[in-house]
Amino acid sequence: MTKKKSLVDRITHRLCSLIFKLISRVLCSLGIAKPKVIIYMDGGICSQMHVYLCGEQYRRLGLKVLFDTYWFDKNGKDLDGRFERNLELGEMFPDLPLYTIRGRKGWYYRNFFSVQNRQCLLPVPESIRRTSYLGGFYHLFPTDEYKDMFVSCFGRGAMGAIPLHIPINKNGTNCAVHVRRGDLANRDEQFYKDNPWYKPLSNEYFLNAIKYVSEHYPNVRFYFFSEELDWVEANLCPKISAPYQLMRGNKGYVDLALISECDVVIGSQGSFGKMGARLNGNADFFDPSPESELGFEIKNFSKELF
After folding, report:
1. Among 62, 41, 43, which residue's Cα sits nearest to residue 53?
2. CA-CA distance, 286 to 295, in Å (whole number)?
3. Domain residues of the chain, as ranges?
4. CA distances (Å), 202 to each of 132, 178, 245, 285, in order?
5. Helices 45-59 & 272-280, crossing angle to 10 degrees?
6. β-strands 284-288, 264-266 pairing
């Protein structure tokens, strides 16, 4: 349990934070120092990519951008503490300018330069007049600028060496199926009530999507990606007549790269399947959609904004 700070400690911390921020603003306004942006990074490979794009907006305007990777040292697990979440962005995209901090320097910025994040919106880059620490989740909305940043940072040519590849399916279709379970599969009812999007998808969603793909694409082979492949093998595979393969034992970023090699992607909660389809740039993506009669909608990111 974290020890609650006394009133004196809280007041002292607040005063120090205000003083450090004021000093930074004065030094930056006088040209003695340049403002920089420090962004908190956590989660799986897709979250890391998302956070990187947040920083890319500032980097393109000439600001120095650092990423605080403290979370991976302290935690590095999913919500249940079962599955690892490693910092893999540099492994997947080795040529990205990725500057990270940790230790005392990270603690200093986290504690004294934090910017309040009430609406999950990034501060306008032009408003950065001093060193600023951005923590929490920030939304990035679909725009041409965002799509351009994504392609330039994460284009297929930017990937490092991937040890495995999806076999070429001549005159056929390779379809990736991402089944998100893990820390979302065993929450209590109140959690699902507050976060309906994270309620586990029904077996019928995956089976209907697989059936649709089998009927509308030639000679389909399915590749399953999940942190609970034993569950997939027991609950989905016995009801599939098409050839399939369970993708076991890979690092998260390797699975994401393999998904990006597929012609069609069936996604679930989260962004793993969607990010793989975006990396492909021309894959058809099946997105969960309760409003749809089929339970999913089909997107192609080469034909629309993200």
Report:
1. 41
2. 10
3. 7-152, 173-300
4. 43, 13, 21, 18
5. 60
6. parallel
At 58-93, the pLDDT tens digits run: 999 999 999 999 999 887 666 666 667 899 999 999
Q: Assign 3-state DSSP to the chain and report helix, strand, coil percentages, each to 5.
A: 40, 15, 45
Q: Which two tokens stand for residue 88?
A: 């893999």
Strand intervals (E) in the chain: 36-40, 64-68, 100-101, 132-134, 173-178, 220-225, 244-246, 264-266, 284-288, 296-300
Burial of 215 (0-12, 13-18, 19+ CB in 10 A): exposed
For residue 220, give the 3-state DSSP assignment. Answer: strand
Q: Does domain 173-300 have CATH number 3.40.50.11350?
A: yes
- Model pLDDT for residues 242-267, shown as the tens digit of each residue: 999 999 989 999 999 999 999 999 99
- Give strand pairing partners of 244: 222
| First CA to last CA distance, the chain | 41
* Chain CA centroid to CA 130, Å: 28
